[in-house]
Amino acid sequence: MLTQSIADQCRTIGIHFARCTVRRQKQFFVEHNLNRFHMSTLLHNGFHSQTAIHRNRIKLLIMPTRTPAPAKKMKSDKPATRGPLATERVNAILKDLDEAYPEAECALDHRSPWELLVATILSAQCTDARVNMVTPELFRRFPTPEAMAKATLPQLEALIKTTGFFRNKAKSIQGAARKIISDFGGQVPQTLDELITIPGAARKTANVVLGVCFGKAEGVVVDTHVFRIARRLDLAKGDTPQKVEQELMHVLPRERWIGFSHQIIQHGRKVCVARNPKCKECNLETLCRAKDKTWES
Ligand code: SF4
């Protein structure tokens, strides 16, 4: 008779059971006056069962369970304490941006979410200043989604021609108007998932409308300025706007997602321009290690 604890007994028995036929296993149970309870205990104490076919006979195998490998270390969600993404450095960048651009806001003229949506679609590959030149007449002629949905493509094309890619943009704003009427009751939707179903409105456009009109921080607007400067400031390394947005969402406090883009866009227009950035005038210079810096303090 075995005198160990049940768990220990079962461990011992498990070794006997390994590669034992079902018939032999049953015999073993009878011989040692064991029952299903012992079997169950065995399976809960480091053993597992599996069936296998050996010489045309089904065998029940009781095998020691391998200790699972320790889980791989995941990327920490904790803020970094060293390096370019250290909280102190990120906060210093945000503080300097606040000092330089305390009133930064969206540069596209608009009076409603609908107008901002259209203006943002038109701003692709075009300056905000140029868009602001065409939108007054566009919205005078077609002030609502209902009116724009009825406009013909040649009418729209003529009004937005100077913004570039005007044929595609005309289709987009006409499609956006029709979609808003058919699916959203004539109102610009207030969720990212809905906004990105609108023709011409990708994630960047949706983030602009959500942030500026509804105060919702669902993401970070990454335009050409944000993409360039986030990488220059070592806040992101991604090679696409989507990757840079994800990195910025990780490193920036959520309450800064909306304002950060407005500030960086202004910084990109005035100081950190694409070619020959004006590093001597830049109040972020001591925090910046960009390879194409034009001046080092
Ligand atoms: S130091 Fe130069 S490169 Fe760096 S953020 Fe300022 S202007 Fe841009």
Question: Tags for this entry?
Answer:
14 helices, 297 residues, binds iron/sulfur cluster, three-stranded antiparallel sheet
The hetero molecules present are: iron/sulfur cluster
CATH topology of the largest domain: Endonuclease III, domain 1
- Count of individual helical segments: 14
Largest sheet: 3 strands, antiparallel
Summarize this, please?
It contains 14 helices and 3 strands. By secondary structure, the chain is mostly helical.
Written description of the protein model:
This protein has 297 residues and is mainly α. The protein folds into two domains: 6-64; 78-292, Orthogonal Bundle (Endonuclease III, domain 1). Helix content is 51%, strand content 6%. It has helices at 6-17, 22-31, 36-43, 87-100, 113-122, 128-141, 145-150, 153-160, 166-184, 192-195, 203-214, 224-232, 241-251, 257-270; strands at residues 20-21, 47-54, 57-64. It has a three-stranded antiparallel β-sheet. β2 and β3 form a beta hairpin. α1 packs across α3. Bound molecules: iron/sulfur cluster. Iron/sulfur cluster binds next to α12. Iron/sulfur cluster (SF4) binds at residues 229, 232-233, 271-272, 277-279, 282, 284-285, 288, 290, 293.
